[in-house]
Amino acid sequence: MISRKKFLHLAGLGIVSSLVPNFLLARFVESSSIDNDVPTLLKAARRLRKQGRLNAAKNKYEQVLALDASEIRAYNGIRKILLSKKHKELEVIQLYQQASANIPTNLRIKRRLYSQYTKAALGNKKITGQLNIPGGRILTYVKERYEELLLQNYPNKKNLEKELAKIDKYIALNVDIVDTRKNKELKKYRRENRNAHKQRFNHLTAQETVQELAALKAKEPSNDRLPQIREMSKVNISALRAEKDYNGALDAASIYLETIDKSDPYFIKQFRELSKQLNNIDDLVRFENYNHTQKKTFWSALALFDVYFKQSEVLNSPGSSVMDSLIQEISSRSENPQQNFETITRQVKYLILKGDFTGAKTKLFALCLQKAGTSDAHSIDRVNLIIAKFYSRQGSSNDISRILEIVNNPTRFIENEDELTRHTALLNLNRSNNKPIHLQQLQQNINNL
């Protein structure tokens, strides 16, 4: 016999049980409808792919294709996943073969399939043997298929015509027959294409490059577009420099560093060169201070010292305590012969700036001995120029002009009574004269002192 208390307890459970299934069923139906929604699945797959969860993303794309075998975005997503791994080219071709079979009226899918055939024909012999292309020669087959697409009013006719012209060229060069490593005509063709690609913006004026860059930046922000912005920014600076608008070029380099990437080596180089050229030293000091604060390396300390040195030359001042500290830091961070050479050249130049000619001469002797016996004209001439600056600060014009005589005929001065002259001759004894441009540059730099 059921007591009143137990009856009420069971009745309450019944009411709850009548409510809970309806709630859960509603949530289940809602969840199922969301999971079966193609756009939602595509978004989920894309998110998983961006996170690197490729297997989970591939499963989502396959769910999409189970719902709609004609969904091109799913095929494209799977293609990206396959190509993120090695040796998946055949699977990509099979994917597009499946897509073409499922969507026979989609001309873009067909073109992508034929494009994959072309890539295989250009060198992947393992794949080409498994494709069973009618007639045997893949490029001829692709050419015929492209011609059919043109007759079927392919939507982007101009691009397809360019692709067809390229296929004709490949057929003429026998790229699918002759080993690409031995095909000289193919190498020449590719080299010409690379050069043409590099020079494709050469016709633009500085104003046109500014407009092109502005148009790129006006588009929706995307990491995929950053390489294009970088390339056009480089073109913009080159065009501005070609038109001698150095202030505009400096502004362009500065804007890129401030808004895109503060550590890009190309734009750092441009900023440094143009700032020195325009004597925009204060901004350069600020930049090099920031750069050294971030990096704390030998090279960042060296760059900061150089800009302070330039500032002291412009202000005609004998240096500062900051430069003393930097010279010590550079010396302590020096770890190899190249860095040792850079360090001692700065030490000599700094001693000359401060008027310590005795100390500078001692360092110059050591520097000449360090480079004696080498043939590298570039580094030897850097020392030659420092010696010329040493004489220039002392007002010894005859000694300056004698440096070029020593460079041209060092053996004549090897036993000269002047010790620095002997060391200069020893420095240049094995100097390479293969490139006359080095001597021309040295003469020009000495004349500019």
Automatic annotation (TrEMBL):
Q: Which InterPro entries match?
A: TPR-like_helical_dom_sf
Q: Which domain of life is it from?
A: Bacteria
Protein name from the UniProt record: Tetratricopeptide repeat-containing protein
